[in-house]
């Protein structure tokens, strides 16, 4: 019954979405009063998807093997938390989660869509319901998560052990919340383009959504990076894998949008540009979903083997993005010009920020999709990896990091303050850092060296907006900006230090042997068999010493039987100035064990920086919402349920 | 600046930026994209020395040799038509074994493929993307021989 109830709830939600869209058309064509039930419909639609998702979760929690999806992706021997997390660890379940978040975002927009023009809110809710409708159709027609198996099998096929990790429980939902939060920005942009109400009021209403989605994307990317770092056992934190790029592209677009939306909110300028970014940001979310969920990444051929899903998603993507761009082409040119500004001004600074982010986005987009185009056109297979992205996008990143230190010091409209004078101290620190690395580490490569210098510059320059005023009286949004920008400096320092100073040791060691890596001496004490709940394992006992610090580490190799797989579980210890990272490899015929050791100075700054960036966003969001709360709402809302 | 002119400047700046990105991207892709080859491709002269590439095929039975340092291995990859020797220093992935599929990332150097990374069949259900096709062809070839 559980599966059937979920299936029925999904159908109901789809019907409500269709009704909601119809209401929008009628309301915009004739009388806005027609749309009175709209907010109620949006809320109930969100509730229905929540019920559908809850039912699927229940089926997974109970290991109901008569549901095909549970049979294929779960096993009754799995720990409970991974049974529940298994709900979204597969294609159908994750698409259901996607549309659930989409519908709930629509419900929240209906409930809290403050201070928007009445017609714009109606048009935005209509757009949101149309988005949801496409994905309901996708689930109901091409990816039914509630399909039954008859007769019901005794036990399930299990879940990829790599995915049996606490990271899995939170990572995809966080990213999805970010992806789909951008749908509201998309819908509001579409709504405002339809009604022509592109103004600072719209920007202020859209801003919390963009900020919220951006915070979650930042957290999701940071957490995903750390997950890959410790789970894969390769010592890397970013592989420029298409799946990673799929989350980076919406983030880049959302970062640009976040900055241009401030220009629209404060100055009423960059109207068309901001609307286009809102459309692009969610389009990138859909491109990401398409890349990950269509099977096209495995191969263009895999896409052709299962054409229904891939084609369905591609057609949805083309329809939504195409329609939004056509609307933009028709209405964008009719928007009034925004307020003027001079060449050196905060507005110009933000335009430059947007241009650089767009260039980086285009480079990542090109590199991610190029292999697909080449294979589709010529049948030749190729991959584009870190060398391309680092060489082509890296320098832009460094230039942007320098400008991040300058931009916030500029005033709106035209420059009135002596900005260069303020930057003396940071510039001096940057040059000093450069000189120090040249003297102390002459063999350092050029990018890590510049990275450290820029990080020193930005770390000090980013605090300047709080200097010369009472920091306690500065708005929360300013604090948020300062912390997020300082976070970029912190992350950059970590990236540069890891690239420049990591020491690695890969060797075979017998029990009792001592190895050195960086400042550490590591003793292999023993290798013993052990067991977990659904795997057996080998565990190495290592004792590492550096001066007075003595610690023990236990890297493991896990052997799973359902499905049959091995995984290397790294053992990592964190210190204030770096991480010691150890991996146990295979036994050697001579009786030794393969060991891989890394000493990674200041590598943790990478994720600390990511966390700071997200924290800055959270402060800004809180500050903005606090201010919005105190403003009066327009009186038309009283007329609705 | 007049608002009209301002819009013109902004639009042209955006166009120039996108153009720069595309040109840089195409230049980067030309020099950095790494192609996927089979041993037959290598035998046919593809895969210039020192240029990033990926090599895929089956690890030939009985070909894995361990070097004295314990972490360097040499093996031979075959696609049924030709063979390429591979050398790799590192911990091989979980399901890397003789007679099973693998993809090596690296470059050709004087007739040997020097791998930086090895990807193997992940579990019974997963195959490295490029091998999906290859093993089907391989099997088809074998059936024909019979």
Structure summary:
The complex is a heterodimer of chains A (641) and B (146). Chain A has 641 residues and is an alpha+beta fold. Chain A is built from 19 helices and eleven strands.
Question: In words, what does this structure look like?
Answer:
- The complex is a heterodimer of chains A (641) and B (146).
- Chain A has helices at residues 2-29, 38-61, 68-73, 80-85, 91-112, 118-142, 166-195, 200-232, 242-267, 271-293, 300-305, 307-332, 346-378, 386-406, 419-422, 424-440, 446-461, 476-501, 605-630; strands at residues 382-383, 503-509, 514-517, 520-531, 535-546, 549-553, 556-561, 564-569, 571-575, 578-587, 593-601.
- The mean pLDDT of chain A is 87.
- With 641 residues, chain A is α+β, with helices and mostly antiparallel strands.
- With 146 residues, chain B is of the alpha+beta class.
- Chain B has helices spanning 3-32, 39-43, 129-145; strands at residues 34-37, 53-59, 65-66, 72-78, 83-89, 101-109, 112-120.
- In chain B, strands 2-4-5-7-6 form a five-stranded mixed barrel.
- In chain B, strand 3 (65-66) and strand 4 (72-78) form a beta hairpin.
- The N and C termini of chain B lie far apart (79 Å).
- The chains are: A alpha+beta (641), B alpha+beta (146).
- Chains A and B meet through helix 13, strand 1, helix 14, strand 2 and strand 8 of A and helix 1, strand 1 and helix 3 of B.
């Amino acid at each position: 019954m559980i599966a059937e109830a979920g299936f029925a709830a999904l159908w109901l939600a789809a019907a409500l979405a269709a009704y909601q869209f119809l209401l929008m058309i009628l309301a915009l064509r004739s009388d806005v009063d027609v749309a009175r039930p709209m907010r109620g419909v949006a809320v109930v639609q969100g509730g229905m998807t929540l019920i559908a998702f809850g039912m699927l979760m229940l089926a997974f929690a109970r290991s109901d093997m008569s549901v095909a999806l549970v049979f294929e992706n779960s096993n009754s021997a799995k720990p409970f938390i991974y049974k529940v997390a298994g709900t979204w660890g597969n294609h159908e379940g994750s698409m259901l989660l996607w549309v659930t978040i989409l519908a709930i975002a629509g419900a929240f927009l209906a409930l809290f869509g403050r201070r928007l023009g009445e017609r714009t809110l109606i048009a935005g809710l209509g757009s949101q319901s149309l988005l949801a409708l496409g994905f309901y159709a996708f689930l109901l027609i091409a990816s039914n998560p509630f399909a039954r198996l008859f007769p019901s099998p005794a036990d399930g096929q299990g879940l990829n052990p790599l995915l049996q990790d606490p990271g899995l429980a939170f990572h995809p939902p966080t990213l999805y919340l970010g992806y789909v939060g951008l749908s509201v920005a998309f819908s509001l942009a579409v709504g405002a383009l339809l009604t022509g109400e592109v103004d600072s009021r719209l920007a202020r209403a859209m801003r919390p959504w963009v900020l919220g989605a951006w915070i979650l994307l930042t957290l999701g990317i940071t957490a995903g990076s750390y997950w890959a770092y410790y789970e894969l056992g390769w010592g890397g934190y970013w592989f420029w894998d298409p799946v990673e790029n799929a989350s980076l592209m919406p983030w880049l677009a959302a970062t640009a949008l976040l900055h241009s939306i401030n220009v629209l909110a404060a100055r009423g300028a960059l109207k068309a540009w901001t609307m286009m970014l809102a459309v692009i940001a969610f389009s990138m979310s859909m491109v990401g979903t398409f890349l990950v969920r269509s099977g096209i990444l495995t191969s263009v051929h895999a896409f052709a083997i299962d054409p229904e899903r891939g084609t369905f998603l591609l057609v949805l993507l083309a329809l939504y993005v195409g329609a939004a761009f056509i609307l933009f082409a028709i209405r964008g040119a009719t928007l009034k010009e925004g307020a003027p500004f001079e060449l050196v001004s905060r507005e110009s600074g933000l335009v430059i920020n947007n241009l650089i982010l767009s260039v980086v986005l285009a480079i990542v987009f090109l590199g991610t999709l190029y292999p697909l185009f080449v294979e589709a056109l010529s049948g030749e297979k190729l991959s584009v990896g870190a060398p391309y992205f680092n060489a082509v996008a890296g320098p832009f990143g460094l230039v942007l990091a320098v400008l991040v230190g300058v931009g916030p010091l500029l005033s709106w409209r035209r420059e009135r303050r002596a900005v260069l004078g303020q930057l003396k101290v940071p510039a001096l620190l940057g040059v000093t850092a450069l000189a120090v690395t040249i003297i102390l580490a002459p063999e350092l490569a050029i990018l890590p060296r510049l990275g450290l210098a820029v990080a020193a510059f930005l770390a000090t320059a980013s605090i300047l907006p709080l200097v010369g005023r009472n920091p306690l009286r500065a708005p929360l949004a300013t604090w948020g900006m300062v912390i997020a920008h300082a976070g970029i400096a912190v992350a950059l320092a970590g990236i540069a230090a890891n690239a420049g100073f990591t020491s690695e040791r890969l060797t075979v060691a017998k029990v009792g042997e001592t190895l050195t890596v960086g400042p550490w001496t590591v003793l292999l004490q023993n290798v013993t068999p052990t067991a977990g709940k659904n795997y057996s394992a080998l565990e190495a006992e290592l004792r590492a010493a550096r001066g007075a610090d003595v610690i023990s580490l236990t890297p493991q190799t896990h052997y799973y039987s359902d499905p049959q797989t091995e995984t290397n579980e790294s053992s990592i210890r964190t210190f204030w100035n770096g991480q010691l990272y150890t991996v146990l490899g295979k036994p050697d015929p001579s009786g030794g064990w393969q060991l891989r050791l890394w000493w990674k100075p200041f590598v943790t700054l990478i994720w600390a920086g990511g966390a700071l960036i997200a924290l800055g966003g959270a402060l800004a969001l809180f500050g903005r919402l606090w201010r919005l709360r105190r403003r009066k709402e327009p009186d038309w809302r009283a007329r609705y349920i | 600046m007049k608002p009209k002119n301002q819009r013109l400047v902004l639009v042209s700046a955006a166009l120039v930026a996108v153009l720069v990105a595309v040109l840089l991207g195409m230049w980067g892709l030309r020099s950095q994209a790494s192609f996927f080859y089979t041993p037959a491709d290598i035998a046919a002269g593809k895969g210039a020395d020192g240029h990033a590439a990926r090599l895929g095929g089956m690890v030939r039975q009985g070909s894995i040799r361990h070097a004295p340092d314990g972490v360097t291995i040499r093996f031979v990859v075959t696609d049924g038509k030709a063979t390429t020797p591979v050398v790799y220093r590192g911990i091989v992935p979980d399901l890397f074994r003789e007679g099973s599929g693998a993809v090596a990332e690296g470059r050709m150097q004087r007739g040997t493929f020097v791998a930086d990374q090895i990807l193997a069949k992940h579990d019974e259900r997963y195959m490295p993307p490029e091998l999906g096709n290859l093993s089907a062809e391989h099997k088809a070839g074998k059936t024909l021989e019979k």
